[in-house]
Amino acid sequence: NSVAVASINVPLAGTPISSSALQSVDNSTCKLQFIVFRNGKLFPCTGNSSNLADDGKRRSVSTPVAFTKLDGCSLGSAVHTVTIALRHFALGVDPTAAYWDFDLLDGHGGWRAEGCHITGSGGNTTTIHCTHHNNFAVLM
C-alpha cells in the first residue's frame, strides 16, 4: 500500500534557527523517533477512571497509533508540540484525539485527551495536534 497511514509535523521553532541551535545539550545529534502501529491492539480501551478520554462512552481506536519522541534536543517548548495526520481504518462518530498514559489504571494504562485536540478532518484522515510526544490515536 503506497498511501501513508500517518504523517508527522514537528515545528522546530517560531523563527528560523541556525544549524548550531539543532545540537543537543551533550553535542550529539537531535533525534526524532516515529513509529506507527497498524492498530490499537496493544492499547485496549478498558477500565474505569475519570481521567480517561472516553468521557464514560465506549470508544475504540479508529486509526493507527503513532508514537513520537525527541531525544537530545535543546530547542525549548516549541519542539515538544506535534501535529499528526492519521488515516482511519474504522468509521465512527464523535472523534477524540488522545494519547496513551501508561500511569493510568494502576499501571495498566489508558487513553487521555489532555493536551491533544483535533485540528481538521477530511475524507478518511484526521489531523490532531498535541503539546507533548507520546503514543497518539483518534478514538471513536
From TrEMBL:
Tell me the Gene Ontology biological-process terms attached to this UniProt entry. Answer: cell surface receptor signaling pathway
GO-annotated cellular components: glutamatergic synapse; plasma membrane; postsynaptic density
Question: Boundaries of each GAIN-B domain copy?
Answer: 1-140
Where found, per UniProt? Membrane
Superkingdom of the source? Eukaryota
Q: Tell me where the transmembrane regions lie.
A: none
Could you say which protein family the record assigns here? Belongs to the G-protein coupled receptor 2 family. Adhesion G-protein coupled receptor (ADGR) subfamily.
Please give the name of this protein: GAIN-B domain-containing protein
Q: Which organism is it from?
A: Pogonophryne albipinna
